[in-house]
Amino acid sequence: MDKKKFVKRAAIWVAVIAAAVITTLGLCFGRVIEGSLAAEVGKWVLMGVLVIGILEGFVYFLGPLIWHFTYGKRQ
Question: Has this prediction a pTM greater than 0.85?
Fold first, then answer.
């Protein structure tokens, strides 16, 4: 597996898992603090996008390093 493919797959999986965790937390522990339910859902969506964006930054920064220690030494 080449480095690009590894980082893309890792980024997709991190985004999917983070979205599932954020959705689960929002459904189980979320309270309507905003004036309407639409504003509350919008807040959770924006928060999810920001958290996933930060995690994706870490993946694209650390992904090549992880690839090097797992697949790079085999080549």
Answer: no
